[in-house]
Amino acid sequence: MTSSLKASPWIRRFHPAPAAAARLVCFPHAGGAASYFHPVSAALSPAVEVLAVQYPGRQDRHAEPLVDDLFVLADRLADVLAEEVRGPLAFFGHSMGASLAFEVARRLEPRGTRLLELFVSARRAPTAVRDERAHEKADAALLAEVKRLGGTQAWVLDDEELVRLVLPTLRNDYKAAELYRYRPGPDVSCPVTALIGDSDPKVTEAEARPWAERTSGGFELKTYPGGHFYLNDHATDVIRLLRERLAR
């Protein structure tokens, strides 16, 4: 099995595996970057090739304008993936990335790409809406929110110079995630697996279960001990799940 993926600014292939049984496209959380999924790529290769999405405005794309609209991001990513990726495909999105992965999947299915599975991590179902406005808060309050979730190393948020660099990206992505609202229309037909932490302040079990309504395929909810970044502590279990579902 081969992939026709070209060198794209949107995609990182840390461990190319052209003979992989499947490809897993990973969508980072708010403020995140493709490098977050490097350990996942290393663990799954060569059975599963990981393609990590790199959003504009971070790391090697730092000079590009940020995009604060998930629908715009989804349109652009759908075009990239439809043109450049072939073969069995699955998506994994964490937090904001879960909403984005779902929207990209909605755009690809009418083009003939049906996913093996959509994994949505640490994210409420699209119809489970909260009125959150962290992106409108002062810098200190926004940073406090980020620290509360634990996804960014504390020493980064305590370094004034680094904070100046990451704040625009954090505020941009929080805006994109918080203003996202489900638009009625065709959903997906692939199986959907929702993964959450049992003490995540951003999503409850009741808010995750309605993901079942967004697919005509099967649905499963898996709960792990931990908060919004439960997968940092349960990476082995999550990677085992991904390998079992995709490597076959």
Automatic annotation (TrEMBL):
GO MF terms here are: hydrolase activity
Domain Thioesterase TesA-like, by residue range, is: 25-246
A UniProt-annotated Pfam family: Thioesterase
Alphabetized UniProt keyword annotations: Hydrolase
The UniProt entry, under InterPro entries, shows: AB_hydrolase_fold, TEII, TesA-like, Thioesterase
Question: Which SMART domains would you find in this protein's record?
Answer: PKS_TE (SM00824)
Family named by the database record: Belongs to the thioesterase family.
Q: What is this protein called?
A: Alpha/beta fold hydrolase
Q: Which organism is it from?
A: Amycolatopsis melonis
